[in-house]
Structures are given as structure tokens and as C-alpha cells.
Amino acid sequence: MASAAGSVLEVIGGTPSVWLDRMVARRGLEGRILAKLDYLNPGFSKKDRAALGIIEAAESDGSLAPGQTVVELTSGNMGTGLAIVCGVKGYPFVAVMSRGNSVERARMMAALGAEVVLVEQAPGSVPGEVSGADLALVEIEARQITAERGAFRADQFRHPGNPAAHAQTTGPELWAESGGKLTAFVDFAGSGGTYAGTIRALKRVNPGLRGYVLEPAGAAVLSGQVASDMAHPIQGGGYAMPELDLMADVPVDGYLQIGGDVARDTARALAREEGIFAGFSAGANVAAALELLTGPERGGCIGVIICDSGLKYLSTDLWA
Ligand SMILES: Cc1ncc(COP(=O)(O)O)c(C=O)c1O
After folding, report:
1. Cys bridge to 63: 40, 58, 170, 307, which one at CB 3.0-4.6 A?
2. Are residues 187 and 217 in the same domain?
3. Relative to the CA of 74, which ligand 1 atom is closest?
């Protein structure tokens, strides 16, 4: 950076990318994986981009008034991004999260000035494994608080500012940092905002580039399968929602599934072999990219996002 930033908001995005050449070589694979280190954002996740994108779009179109309260359902990362953006811009922020998400997330959001409302998990749900049923309960609570407070709902699952942020920043950054060499992109879907925005930007510059959507094994409903086992530790996505609004009309060339154990093992390998300390979904993305190099994308160049920091999982079994 040539000069100092005026606020932390100016250092959201523009994260470095790293070739995972050691992991690829160690497995005897042909091709390359380019990992965008989005855990180096101010809130230690890629969701800072979506938070800034939604708030600035809402400021521009007048749907967010000065000083109005902002409310959002979050697995922790979106809430952290919004806590940062709202804190700097002067909007009170209420984060509504399932108790099933790790405790680090709630503490971090509160430290950044957010009011954190924790919602009990659905009967039978497991801490650390947030299901679609858990999320539905969080949604009910978020709607109620939004209505009670006359608040602006950031609505990451529907607001176009979410994919737009990735179309304007993540996609072009990955393309430039690959030297115009990317042939595929794979991403674990939560709201689908990262996938939708990034693939749109990448296909604009390289129409032949292929996009793969990643889901947890057993909860791969976007690919048309029936959910058989919705429990998985990959926080931030894989909610087994049959339709994601942000994915409508978004090109998908293939669907992949990764089990929680593989995501965990790959996050651990990423830490040991590449020095990249990240969470479950980053492990899932890298595992999927490695799998693609063994098959349809052999010899290709695959982009992935390192979604959030491993520090957010110190209380889970990821590093046990
Ligand atoms: C750690 C993590 N991984 C993946 C995702 C999914 O990203 P998206 O909502 O853009 O699909 C999220 C979303 O919150 C996340 O927090």
C-alpha cells in the first residue's frame, strides 16, 4: 500500500493469493491451486467483503438511513464483518447467531461493539454442527428483532450487495493474481454470494473457465440429491437449502461433495504443509480442488478462497 488507509474499511479485500504448490506436489498431482487468503481481512474472514458491499449498496439506494439499527443472521463471520463496518460508520448492529456456532465468534462480535443474540439450537442438533433447522430458528428471531426495532435487515442470503462485492473484488483479484491462468473455481456455498459473484466475474474474462459448487456430503441438495445426513462441522454453509436466491441464473459446471472429516484433515494439512491457518470451509475448498486435479481439472489451475481464520475454531475439535 502506497499510503495509510483512512479507516479499516479501506483494507477490506485486496488479500494476497498463494500457490499451494507444496500440497499439490506432495500428492503427486498435475496442475496448480491458487488460494486467496481471505482470513487476512480485518474480521479474519471473506465475509467482510459482503458486509461492506451490502451496507454501501444500502446507503446508496437509501434503504439504510443514517444511524438506523442493522440486524443480521450470521454464523459469526458475516456478523463480524457487519460489526466492523457498522462500528466504523456509526450504525448500531445486532447479530443473531445459533448457539451451535463456536463461542469465539460471539465474543469477537461483542468486542467489536455488536449486540449479540444467541438462539438455542433445534432439538437434537449438536453444538458445532449448525443445521438448516437451527438456522430457521435464527431467522425467526432475526425477523422479529428487525420488526421490533424498525431496523435494516442486511439479509446476506438475498441482498445483491453480497455477490456484487465478490464480482467487483474477489473475482478480478483472483484472475489478476493468477496471471490470467485460472481454468476453474470451486467454492463451498453458504449464501452462495461468494460463488455467484466470483464465477460471474471470472467467466466474464474467461468464458471457458469452469465453476464448481461444493456441498457437504450427505447434505448436497443444490446438486439435486436428497439430504441424508445434515450434520457436518463445516460452519458457514452447507445448510441443505434446496434453493439459494443468490444462485438463481448463476452458471454451475459441476457439483462436488466433501465430508466433514476430509475438510478437517485438509485444514490440518493446509496448516502443516503450507503454513495457512484456516477453518473447516477452507479445508473443504482445498480438498475439492485437490480432487478436481485428480479428475476433470487435471493439469488445470484452480482458484479457491481461504474463507476464515483457524483462530475461530480453537474451541472446536479442528485443532484438538
Ligand atoms: C467460514 C465460512 N465459509 C463459507 C461461507 C459461505 O460463503 P457464502 O455465504 O458466500 O456462500 C461462510 C459464510 O458465512 C463462512 O463464514
Report:
1. 58
2. yes
3. 14
Does residue 81 have its Cβ closer than 6 Å to ligand 1? Answer: no
Find residue 152's DSSP bridge partners: 70
For 22-73, the pLDDT digits (tens) are 999 999 999 999 999 999 999 999 999 999 999 999 999 999 999 999 999 9
**pTM strictly above 0.85:** yes
Distance 3 CA to ligand 1 centre (A): 31
Residue showing cell 473484488 = 169
One domain for residues 196 and 292: yes
Contact, 192 vs 186, CB < 8 A?
no
The one-letter amino acid code at 280 reads F
Instruction: Decide whether any atom of ligand 1 lies within 6 Å of the 281 Cβ.
Output: yes
> Among candidates 106, 93, 197, which has minimal Cα distance to 149?
93
Q: Of 162, 164, 166, 190, whose CA–CA distance to 303 is shortest?
A: 166
- Ligand 1 pocket test, pick from 188, 247, 270 with the greatest ligand atom count within 8 Å of Cβ, gives 188
**Residue matched to cell numbers 461483542:** 110
The verdict on the CB of residue 101 being under 6 Å from ligand 1 is no
Q: What domain count does the chain have?
A: 2
